[in-house]
Amino acid sequence: ARLIATVATMLGPTPAFYALFPDVNPPEPWGGVVRELYATLATRRLRVLHTPAGADGTAPDGIGRWIALTDAVYPDHELAHDDALRDALVAEGMPLTDAPTAVLDRVEEHAVPDPERVSPER
Questions:
Q1: ω before 29 within 30° of 0 (cis)?
Q2: Rounded to whole angstroms, how far apart are CA atoms 96 and 51?
Q3: Mean pLDDT in consecutive groups of 10 residues from the start of the chain, 122 residues
Q4: Cα 73 off chain centre by
Q5: Measured at the alpha carbon of residue 31, what is the angle toward residues 50 and 99, in degrees to the nearest 5?
Q6: Is the Cβ–Cβ distance between 61 and 39 less than 8 Å?
Q7: Is 23 strand, coil or helix?
Q8: If you write DSSP's letter for every residue of 45-94 in order, what string do you get?
Q9: How far apart are CA 74 and CA 12, in angstroms?
Q10: What is the rounded distance in angstroms from the CA atom of residue 45 to the CA atom of residue 38?
Q11: Which among 89, 115, 120 is positioned nearest to 104, based on CA atoms?
């Protein structure tokens, strides 16, 4: 878990970084490793999800910031495809994560069972 948090700042919010996250549930005994990884990321509040919120110069890298699994707002399917609405919410400072859906699905399954969500209706 700490390795993923360390590599986040090295790779940035790239496909290569998110490829480090297991995005499927493997058979046992590896399934237990996946569950433990996501649980540890959440309980230790490691900042491994990226949000473009803060890209206005308030974020250290100028392109957003890293947040903990429990601090992220998760987009629904419609919002993931509505660039204008997503950009408006981020501009208002909402910590909407830009992590891939497969990663967010595993986070919800193993670590944050009821994440804060946003959709065009909400």
A1: yes
A2: 6
A3: 92 94 92 95 96 66 84 84 85 90 92 84 62
A4: 8
A5: 15
A6: no
A7: coil
A8: T-EEEEE-TTTTTTSTTSS-EEEETTTPEEE-HHHHT-HHHHHHHHHTT-
A9: 19
A10: 11
A11: 115
Exposed / middle / buried, residue 29 (Cβ in 10 Å: 0-12, 13-18, 19+): exposed
Give the integer Cα–Cα distance in Å for 103 and 14: 13
* Structure token pair of residue 79: 């919002």
Q: Which residues face 66 on adjacent strands?
A: 50
Q: How far is CA 64 from the centre of its chain?
A: 12
- List Cα–Cα distances, 51 to 25, 60, 83, 110, 122, in angstroms: 25, 12, 14, 21, 19
